[in-house]
Design brief:
binds adenosine-5'-diphosphate, five-stranded antiparallel β-sheet
């Protein structure tokens, strides 16, 4: 069967609509019919696309403009954004007596990314502004009212050091997040002894845990198979999860870190190793669990800040785990505690040098 222009238009992902001089739809490709009411053909455009910007674009061209561009967002529940290009068909091409073609190109993903970038900049500025204005305030106090007060000076300097530390941590986390993002599509290739990482990270955090009378209990670190990964990034994952368990795990209790083999990872179909960090602290409200890996998302902002948090730890964990083609899951019982588990693919020699297993 010869390929007709309609078949070609139907194969395009972008909606295309042809209007006559009365703004009636006389042709629509499959993408347009999937997006808009199926009875759109034969009706005025206002019947299927009730958007003032789109109607104006069509009208401008019907009234003589050669072309007109409009950025439109379809109303809820669709909420999809399109760049709509209305173009006049040349007079001699009037197969249908038509006048205008509307070409729509979806921009939802780009718009969302743009919005996320803008939100991110606003969040970073906001996070930096509060320690910075505290510092400025204390500097003024030290220069003025507290000029001669040794005791107050000592006190203010301590707070200033804390605020400066907060800014440093924020910048370190931002750099580490952007570092992970840059490499996210490059799969790590190293052979990593995850059991050893868990042991050494928990050892170095045990002093902080002891300050809250939290005991870190380990299981499975000796028998875990090696994983395929980037050792520095996996140290960071374990550090962030155990650090959170210490911060939000209450007092006089335990933190359990279990390393265990997993038969099959959904992402790779191959075997994996899971690292689960369980605490018996405050837990997380159910409706907020899925949002924790968003940058700067915190259940309790003031509390996270007072504990030295930046709100970026779990976002970093998520990106590192994505890069490793692993998975992160969070289970929590509010008031009883939480378990954060990551699963990573096992390191297999033959996958690294391209040979098949014997
Ligand atoms: P933060 O620097 O605030 O700790 P994270 O990205 O590491 O940032 O965590 C985001 C938020 O998730 C925290 O502010 C806290 O509300 C919540 N959270 C993380 N880990 C735990 C945990 N083990 N128990 C309870 N809440 C947690």
């Amino acid at each position: 069967m010869p390929m007709t222009s309609k078949t070609i238009l139907d194969s395009l992902p972008d909606p295309i609509i042809v209007l006559d001089e009365d703004r009636r739809v006389i042709e629509a490709n499959k993408a347009a019919l999937d997006l808009m009411p199926s009875d759109m053909i034969g009706h005025n455009l206002a019947h299927s696309l009730r958007h003032p910007g789109a109607l104006k674009a069509a009208d401008m061209v019907l009234q003589g403009e050669p072309e007109y561009l409009a950025e439109i967002e379809l109303p809820p529940p669709l909420r999809r954004s399109f760049s709509l290009h209305a173009v006049r068909l040349s007079e001699k091409n009037h197969e249908y007596g038509s006048r205008v073609v509307l070409l729509m190109h979806e921009t939802t993903a780009a718009k969302r990314a743009e919005q996320m970038r803008a939100d991110f900049v606003a969040n970073v500025s906001h996070e930096l502004r509060s320690p910075l204005s505290a510092l400025v305030g204390f500097i003024e106090t030290l220069q003025g009212p507290a000029k001669e007060d040794k005791e107050a000076q000592q006190h203010f300097l301590e707070i200033m050091a804390k605020e400066a530390g907060r800014m440093t941590r924020l910048i370190e986390d931002l750099l580490s997040l952007s570092g992970v993002e840059i490499n996210e599509h490059v799969r790590p290739r190293g052979r990593v002894d995850i059991g050893r990482i868990v042991k050494s990270v928990t050892e170095s955090l045990s002093v902080r845990a002891a300050e809250r009378n939290l005991t870190i209990e380990l299981a499975g670190t000796e028998s875990a198979p090696p994983v395929l990964g980037d050792p520095d990034q996996l140290i960071q994952v374990v550090q962030n999860l155990v650090d959170n368990a210490i911060k939000y795990g209450g007092r006089d209790s335990a933190i359990r870190v279990r390393v265990a083999p997993v038969d099959r990872l959904p992402q790779t179909g191959g075997p994996g190793v899971s690292v689960a960090v369980q605490d018996f602290g405050e837990g997380i409200p159910e409706d907020q669990v899925s949002r924790l890996t968003e940058r700067f998302y915190r259940v309790d902002k003031a509390r996270s800040r007072s504990l030295g948090g930046t709100g970026l730890g779990l976002a970093i964990v998520k990106h590192i785990i994505n890069r490793h083609r692993g998975s992160l899951s969070i289970e929590s019982d509010e008031g009883k505690g939480s378990t954060f588990s990551v699963v990573l693919p096992v390191f297999r020699e033959h996958e690294q040098n391209g040979t098949q297993p014997a």
